[in-house]
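In response to reviewer comment 3 from the previous cycle, which asked for concrete evidence that the modeling workflow produces usable outputs, we include below a single protein chain processed end to end. The sequence was submitted unchanged, and the resulting structure tokens are shown without manual editing.
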Amino acid sequence: MDKESLRERVWDDLDESGEARFPFPPHGRIPNFAGADEAAERLAETDEWVDADVLKANPDAPQLPVRRAALRQGKTVYMAVPRLRDEKCFLRLDPAEVEDIDHATTVGGSAEVGVKVGPDEMESVDLIVSGSVAVTADGARVGKGEGYSDLEFAVLRELGLVDGTTPVATTVHERQLVDADVPTRDHDVPLDLVVTPERTVRTGGGGKPAGIDWALLSDERRAEIPVLSRVAPE
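The workflow returned the following structure tokens.
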């Protein structure tokens, strides 16, 4: 099954089953789901979470409980600026600097109180939490189709802020964990942990991209993302 067909299948299923949660419809986004809080609690029980002081997390609604749990436990959270469009392309949420965690971890609140930083101002990342549309038990991930999650990892890898051992996790509904042959390419970042409200799946991961696959980036996209100029080959 190709990725777009799988996305549509999962979006339709969450919608029709009543398991999707605000914002609606689930289509075209990282879908929010019933049990997102429970999945976040289960993720917080893993060794990877306990050992992490610094997270990079996606800004989407289903991972809101993850971001809140991280700040409440004293962990620093980095979130990418949408489409990496700014020179300082990450927002830092430092629990020592945040007064209202509930507000700061929303999309609007993070833009308001998060501190914009460039990669040279960031700490090394101990755990990445990615949003997903569909996932498999062997760690294949399907996002919403824009490729920014994989590109963010590749940028951080180029800059030495993550490496091949940095764990990557996601929280999803059981209906998003699919039995399908998902086509993956070398630039796709595999998941190490898939966490649902009911269970934690250790996927075995797989090799992570060593950096940016420049052949996949158009001149237009390179021009739109200032940080790429820092790591572009001569």
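The chain has a mean pLDDT of 95. We consider this sufficient to address the reviewer's concern, and the full set will be provided in the supplementary archive.
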